[in-house]
Amino acid sequence: MEKISVVILTFNGEKYLEACLSQISKIGDEIIIVDSGSSDNTISIAKKFTDKIFFHEFENYGRQCRYAVSLTACKWVFVVDQDEILTDALVDEIKYLKLTGFDCDGYYIKRDNYLFGKLIKHGGWGDDYVLRLFNKEKGEHTDNNFSVVKTEGMTKKLKHSIKHYPYDSVHEYLSKMHSYANHSAKEMLSQNKTFKLRKLILNPFGRFFKKYILEFGFLDGLHGFVLAVFSYYFVFLKYLRFWELKRNEK
């Protein structure tokens, strides 16, 4: 039977972590937790399921994942976020693969994304497949602030999904957005990109139009509109923060 190392990055994730770990422990032969300084009950919850808990200062998502994967013992790795919960159907599907053998080098898994408790079906959130289960000898995370795995081999999509609860309140959304925008701006600075005023002005509108019109966000009602507005704000904030960093360089 194939074995899987599970990797979870944590930071103040007590709300969904126990449910996340309860499900993932059904398919994981090893659970690696990499925390970046939680001040809530995250660590005490994690200790119920594993003793392999490490602290690592957060730089960006890709680097944090690469560090976590480097700690794993199994060839196959499953990366899951602290606010994601595997459905029972997905657990059974992965158990079957472990029993019969993996037939490719990586598997994309669909995420059912919830905003303020509502399942979002449009605006780019409805067809959200992420490469989370992979052979670490054939793939690794890219060096950026997003969950992107590049693999050399063949990939497939699994049939069943993960439930994802990234934002339960406006306050939580804005707090995370400021953090993500700051990390994105720092990456732009490290890549020696040039600040352009037209991008600060036009790109946020482009993002709103894409989310709300082109990706049919309006079909999700008020939640779809809010998601499009927040997407506008994120892009604006990213370029504004980048402008500030460039100005402080001088």
UniProtKB/TrEMBL annotation:
This is Glycosyltransferase family 2 protein. Belongs to the glycosyltransferase 2 family. WaaE/KdtX subfamily. The chain crosses the membrane at residues 221-240. CDD domains: Beta4Glucosyltransferase. Residues 5-129 form the Glycosyltransferase 2-like domain. The keyword Chloroplast does not apply. One of its GO terms (molecular function) is transferase activity. Keywords: Membrane, Transferase, Transmembrane, Transmembrane helix. InterPro entries: Glyco_trans_2-like, Nucleotide-diphossugar_trans. It comes from Deferribacter autotrophicus. It holds the Pfam family Glycos_transf_2.
